[in-house]
Structures are given as structure tokens and as C-alpha cells.
Amino acid sequence: QNVTQTVEEEKPEPPTLQEIKQKIEKYNAKVTNCLLMKLNDDGTYTGFIKVHLKLRRPVTVPAGIRPQSIYDALKEVNLAEMTDKRTSFYLPLDAVKQLHISSTTTVSEVIQGLLKKFMVVDNPQKFALFKEMRKDGQVLFQKLPLTEYPLYLRLLAGPDTNALSFVLKENETGEVEWDAFSIPELQNFLMILDKEEKDKIQQVHKKYEKFKQRLQQTLKEARGKPG
């Protein structure tokens, strides 16, 4: 069962440099995939997080863009800015992206970084980062504030992703802010709704047609019986 928590947790006091060092040493001792955290001289630290993409709606990307090359990555070429043409498609369900970030990297920066890697040009405000936890057979989701530091949460939880993992989802605020979507996106939603409506109608027709055939067969058998 999935449960989304909306209650904000009280933040503890910031740890001292010595406490951070001890936590990193304890964390690295449990790492089995060489993805260690590294403490810098200025007290900051770097490490890796994995983010699961669980997006139910299509995203907007540039149309006709070639795959990013190593040269593009090194030169930080933004391929999305090379065309004004847009198209919408669904990202693979539960795709996973690994990010190397700093202890000063915020949730907002993680979201923007993920969108850039997938060349998604949608407004970052449409998305939210959640932390996923498992407790008493339940899967709990809690939306993270944009100013939260994901690497610190990873450090506190340890490297076990069963204890804590990160998920990128749509930013559900109760009311859908349709003004935040582009015209192609809205048109794509209409096409999806139209297809779903037709599928539902077809399912209902099949259900009642089958029921009708059974009734007709029963009546036919009853009429054929004497008395």
C-alpha cells in the first residue's frame, strides 16, 4: 500500500564537522558498489543518489534532436536550445538515474538536473522529489521541500535503498494547474483521454453483449423444453 505523507518533520540541529566525518566513515563502510562519499577540506562532501522516475503524464522534449555526444557533455551544450519544435512522450516507467551531487545540492537543483539530462523542457514546478520509505509493509512517500539536501538524507539513511530512496513524480497540489501546460501538452492530454474513453466504451459494450448472449441462450433453451 502506498501512502503519501504531507506532515512536515522537525529538522534536527545541523551536525558538526566531526559528526559528519564519522557518519561518512560509517556510510562508506557499508557501501558495496564503490559509490563512496567523499569529505572535502571545506566541510562539504560529495556522493551519489539514485532517483526513480515515476511519471504518469507525458513530458515535453525537443523534436528531432540527435543523442547527446561526449563532446556535448564536456562543452555543456544544451541541445534543447537548438530547436523550437516540441513533442510529448512518456518516459520509461520507473526509469532510474544516478546523480553525483554535493551536500549543498538542493532538491530544486536535483529536479532541474534530472530534467536537463532527459532534455525535458517542461517547467520544473510541475515536478516534485519524494523520499520513499518502507515501514510495516507500507510504502510511504513524503514530498521534500525544494530547499532540502538529498545527499544529507542519503547519508543519514545509509546506502541501503530499501531504507530510503528518491522518486521524481508529478507535483500534485490537489488542483491541476492547467495554465502551466503548453498547447501541445494539452492537446496530447485530450488525445489520451479520448483513447481511454473509447477503450472504456468498448469494454462496456463487450460486457453487456456477452450478458445479452447468455440471456438469449437461456431463453432459447427454456423455450425448447416441454411444459
UniProtKB/TrEMBL annotation:
A Gene Ontology molecular-function term? zinc ion binding
**What region holds the Ras-associating domain?**
87-173
Which keywords does UniProt give here?
A: Apoptosis, Cytoplasm, Cytoskeleton, Metal-binding, Microtubule, Phosphoprotein, Zinc, Zinc-finger
GO annotation, biological process: apoptotic process; signal transduction
A GO CC annotation given for this chain: nucleus
Question: Which segments constitute the SARAH domain?
Answer: 175-222
Q: Quaternary structure per UniProt?
A: Interacts directly with activated HRAS; a RASSF5-STK4/MST1 complex probably associates with activated HRAS. Interacts with KRAS. Probably interacts with Ras-like GTPases RRAS, MRAS, RAP1B, RAP2A and RALA. Interacts with RRAS2. Can self-associate. Interacts with RSSF1 isoform A. The RSSF1 isoform A-RSSF5 heterodimer probably mediates the association of RSSF1 with HRAS. Isoform 2 interacts with activated RAP1A and ITGAL/LFA-1. Binds STK4/MST1, inhibiting STK4/MST1 autoactivation.
Looking up PANTHER family in the UniProt record yields: RAS ASSOCIATION DOMAIN-CONTAINING PROTEIN 5 (PTHR22738:SF9), RASSF (PTHR22738)
Q: What is this protein called?
A: Ras association domain-containing protein 5
